[in-house]
């Protein structure tokens, strides 16, 4: 499975994340993002790049 395939498969979860992030204040989101990236880098460092891309997608969608 390619990274693209995985992102497409995870669209429902990414959408849920975007809806939850939309409810957060900017400070809450920045705290969430920092903590989430720290946790991913500690537990699953190989997917950190993918997680950053997913957060970029969420941020892009919410900026529209």
Q: Indicate the structural class.
A: mainly alpha
Q: What is the quaternary state of this protein? A: single chain
Mean pLDDT value: 93
Based on Cα principal axes, name the global outline: flat
Distance between the termini: 30 Å
Order of helices and strands: HHHH
Roughly what fraction of the amino acids lie in strands? under 5%
- Major sheet: none
Radius of gyration, in Å, reads 12 Å
Q: Number of helical segments?
A: 4
Which residues form runs of ≥5 with pLDDT under 50? none
Question: Helix share of residues?
Answer: over 70%
Total DSSP E strands: 0
Can you summarize this structure?
The protein has 64 residues and is mainly alpha-helical.
List keywords for this structure.
single chain, mainly alpha, 64 residues
What does this structure look like?
With 64 residues, the protein is mostly helical. The protein contains four helices and no strands. The mean pLDDT is 93.
Which helices and strands, and how do they pair?
Layout: H1 3-9, H2 11-22, H3 26-43, H4 48-62
Helix pairs in contact: 2-4, 3-4
């Amino acid at each position: 499975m390619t990274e693209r395939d995985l992102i497409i498969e995870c669209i429902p979860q990414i959408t849920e994340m975007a809806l939850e992030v939309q409810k957060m204040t900017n400070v809450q989101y920045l705290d969430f993002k920092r903590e989430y990236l720290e946790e991913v880098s500690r537990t699953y460092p190989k997917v950190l790049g993918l997680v950053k891309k997913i957060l970029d997608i969420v941020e892009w969608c919410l900026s529209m």
